[in-house]
Amino acid sequence: MKLLYSLSLILLSVLLITGSCISRKKLTYLQYSGKSAGYGVPGEEEMISVTPSAYKIMPFDNLYIRVLTPDPQWSELFNTMPIGVGGTVTEEGAALFGYPVDEEGQIEIPFVGKISVGGKTTSEIKSELETEFGNYLTDFAITVRLVNNFVSILGEVNVPGRYRLTKERINIFEALAMASDMSMYSNRQKVQLIRPSPYGPVIREFSLSDRSILSSDLYYVFPNDMIYVMPIQGRSFQVNASAYSLFFSAISTALVVFGFFRTL
């Protein structure tokens, strides 16, 4: 009976230890492999890099457009968005009074009409608007920004959520840093990125354990991207470890009670 009790305790310990141990290799970013030539290889000078493309406006995006002129009357005519204290624009105001892009990729500006913005960058839209407003004004400046400039980070990260992008170009590691990095139960070899496109969402899967991500077109994050970090296989066991512990404790107790009454 003591042998059975000892075996049950040993089995429980082995299951808990093997279920909680995660190898260092699974937790390390940017490891060298045959695919990552040019990154950290002794004597290797060639560096492979990727030039990120700019985000192109899609239907149902929301644009903040501000026309600044020395004449307050012209400014009031072309700007309907409320301005806060000190001339600042609140996020709520930008979202509420911005210019929504319709299904055809167009926005409608008062006294100007419809402008096609779909498939264009904010810089291209700014240039076209400067030409358009040049028909009405001689001294002016235009600001064009994307209102819905967020990235969603879900799954095995420490603080999942929806985060605002504070600059135009951000990489995958900067995005994960906003979510306080991946958890210790994340699968760094299987990270999914869901990116909207004019034809529907596109799902791409990549590894952050390999340095080849530095030369991938997925290295940079776009507005409205969703990053999903998958869990490792042992995560389900770790979540249920307390249940397993209770189960084996009940068996051990039953064996002790059974052995006690058997000796009577």
Any idea of the CATH topology of the largest domain? Outer membrane lipoprotein wza fold like
Unreliable sequence segments: 14-19, 237-241
Instruction: Spell the H/E element sequence.
Output: HHEHHEEEHEEEEHEEEEHH
Shape: elongated
Helix and strand content put the structural class at alpha+beta
Q: What is the CATH class designation of the largest domain?
A: Alpha Beta
Numbering strands along the chain, what is their spatial order in the largest sheet? 7-6-12-9-10
> What distance separates the N and C termini?
14 Å
The percentage helix is 25-40%
- Estimate what percentage of residues fall within beta strands: 15-25%
Total helix count? 8
Tell me the number of strands.
12
- The number of distinct structural domains comes to 3
CATH superfamily membership of the largest domain: Outer membrane lipoprotein wza domain like
CATH architecture of the largest domain: Roll
The largest sheet is: 5 strands, mixed
For the structure shown, list the relevant keywords.
3-stranded antiparallel beta sheet; wza like fold; 264 residues; Outer membrane lipoprotein wza fold like; alpha+beta; 22% strand; 5-stranded mixed beta sheet
